[in-house]
Design brief:
The longest helix has 92 residues. The chain is α+β, with helices and mostly antiparallel strands. The model has no long low-confidence stretch (mean pLDDT 91). The strands form 4 sheets. Strands 1, 2, 5 and 6 form a 4-stranded antiparallel beta sheet that branches. Strands 4-3-7-8 form a 4-stranded antiparallel beta sheet, with no helix packed on it. Strands 9, 10, 11 and 14 form a 4-stranded antiparallel beta sheet that branches. The protein has 15 helices and 16 strands. The two termini are 92 Å apart.
Length: 570
Amino acid sequence: DDGLGAWDHADGVRRGQRDPEALAMGAAAGARAADEDAAADAAVRVEAQYRDLAREPRFDARPDARAYAAPGSWIEAPELHGVFEAYPLRRAPRRLLEAFDGWGYDPWRLTRCASRNEFLDRSWSDASRAFEYWASDGRRAAGYRVLRSDAERRTFRSAFVAAYPAALSRQYSGRLAGAYAEGWEDGWAYGAELSYEWHFRLGYREGFERAASLAAEVAYRAAYGRSYERAYERTFDAWARDARPGILGLRVHDANGDGVFEPGEEVELEADLANYGGGSSTFALRAGGPDVERPAELEVALRGRGRVSSPGAVRVALRSDAAPRSIATVAVELGEARDAVEIPVDWPVEFDDEVATDVRALDGAARVEVSIRNRSRRPVPAAVVLERVGGRAAGEIRDAGVLEPGGRRSFAFDVGGVAPLDLLSGRVDVGLAVFRGKQRLEGLTYRFPDVVEDLGNRDLVDYLFDLASRTELSPGEESEARAAMLRRLRADWAAAAAGRGNPYKADLKDGGARTALGDLLEAWRASRGRLRHPELFRRLGEDVEALVEDLPGAHPLLRKSMRKLARELG
């Protein structure tokens, strides 16, 4: 009941506003904030003046107006539980204390209850429970205990239960109502005492916060100007007295001057420097970072205010294991000044991104054509080596001679002895490398594409018929080829299901080759009678019939037509 503690709340506000600690705390915080803000503002103003090398700094300690917002909270908010602890029940009337004896609830726990049902036991008025309690006292229930038959006991119990409500009502009117009224009055008095204290504490904090915030704002306004002048003078004198180094720009050169920064190559860093302060000193211009082999430094003397170039170059080597076509970052320090330069790492001769191929899957052979170019400013002797085909070493070399700056050369390598199905399934890669003399530069790995699911490529179909035409048919090779064809037909089904109409039905009707299965069946019809191993296609037809049942989607007519094509193949 907020109205019950209104006077106490107002009294708390008045007392909190007069608390000397609130005034002292607010004033100290305001003065401290004024010192901090003034120091920061003065530092920014002075630094801006000294960093402008085109103008001479002038002492001007006039502060700008600065807004100040006091902290939102000065002391912790009171907690209601703390009031119960400060005013425990032992200070309440004795009758109220006795009412809580042996009960699992105290006043604080009662305030947490959402309804009476959490703590009120309504079974106290139950007649059957009353009888059990009454009968448990042997002296009081002596007359009931002498009854011998069950019928007499049931009659007695029934009479008790029937008469209990009326007897309870008389007791309530005569005794319980009065006890309830006394408990209500005592509980109200205790609750009111807690409420007064709670509202007083809320008001006290409100007044304390108000007084502290006002004192802080007053102290801030009074102290900021003086604090700013002191901070400005102190900061201005420090900049005028000390050397303040700065890095204006960085220039980087590769050691051999070919314009390409190679892994492990030494690079030279030159810097445009500045001294923003009025003093003179000597600093170390240091270059390093995780992308260089080891840091290096150069001593630089800075005299007065002005710009100066580094007296030489700092030389550092890029990491020898730096990846080509990557960026190496070199960090540069001069006193407290920091900067960095990003260096593109690469080899002077590199592969072009495109690789041209001519695959002859039935022959187990292919031709690979690559191009290299010289991206440096100097001629470079180069050679291209086919290092491996799959897991087999090759070692085939193509000498490019001396590549002029910007020059480009192309080379072709013939790859043979590869299993046709490995070529078709993308299980074969080749490794090539560019060499400068004996130094291996860039490497290139090219993997032949998987064309099994490329419905525009018929190499797998041709390979299947080539197998069936051989004198001897390897069971393992046949099984692998049929598995590849099933993968192709899965892709064929996905394309048919995503399109319009029923291309399988159309292929059935006119013997066309709109689908991969129709194309296979057309070739089978044309070759029937000329194949040494026609059983390959019978087994493939059985595989396709089984596949039809496993294909995704609900396309009954499409599935039915595909099954008919598969049976014709079988």
